[in-house]
Amino acid sequence: MNRYLKIICLLLCTALYPSCGVLSLLTCNYRIDKVNNPMLAGIGVSTFNDLTKLDAITALKVATTLLSGSLPLSATVHIGVSNPNTNAAQISGLDWILLFEDVQVLTGATQQEVYVAPNGGVSSIPLTIKADLATLLKNESLDRMMQFANGLLHIGEKGAKVSLKIQPTILMGSKPVKMGYVTLSRELSIQ
User: What's the number of CA atoms in the CB half-sphere (13 Å) around residue 4?
Assistant: First the structure.
């Protein structure tokens, strides 16, 4: 019932206030633009591109961190929003769920307001991601953990599949209304 009420409110708002950007937001295009500064145990992930060039100090740091029961991962994921409509769109926040190789890693939210200009306007929403992979993967099989690590470190044929489920929030008057989830996927490439 609550879902139907939200839909009715959105339709009414769109009909009564076409310039409010609700319809524009519903038809915006979302994508993962880029992943900046991926770090594993405080070391740039690109360091692991060629394991034959991995120095002893870096290997020791990763091993020490892992033996302590932790393997911190951090990165900034940039979400691109483009608006093909003739009205502007505005997002007042964003809930998100991050998945690596189809394993839910982290959830979060940002309250950053984003304005997307009409007629092809583009905006970017940066999401700071921080997670402890050792904790998140503790219930996974050794095979699955190796598959995950190989994908993350870009070993083998392809990189890790990164998926992000985003749920934009808009303001209707002063009340926040969450839209439906949009799933974005991208192969993590190390540069």
Answer: 1
Distance, in Å, from the CA atom of 6 to the CA atom of 162, rounded to the nearest integer, reads: 30
2-187: CATH architecture: Sandwich (2.60)
Q: How many residues does the chain have?
A: 191
pLDDT tens column, 83-135: 898 888 888 889 999 887 777 878 999 988 888 898 999 999 998 888 887 77
Return d(Cα 38, Cα 34) in angstroms, integer.
11
Query: Does the model's pTM come out above 0.85?
Result: no
Residue-range domain boundaries for the chain: 2-187
Residues 41-95: tens digit of each pLDDT: 787 776 666 666 667 777 788 778 777 878 788 888 888 999 898 888 888 889 9
Classify residue 182 as exposed, middle or buried by CB count within 10 Å of its CB (0-12, 13-18, 19+).
middle
Q: How far apart are the C-alpha atoms of 144 and 138, rounded to whole Å?
A: 11
Between 143 and 81, where is the model more confident? 81
Distance (Å, whole) CA 154 – CA 35: 14
Of 86, 95, 83, which Cα lies nearest the Cα of 26?
A: 83
Rg of the chain in Å (alpha carbons):
20
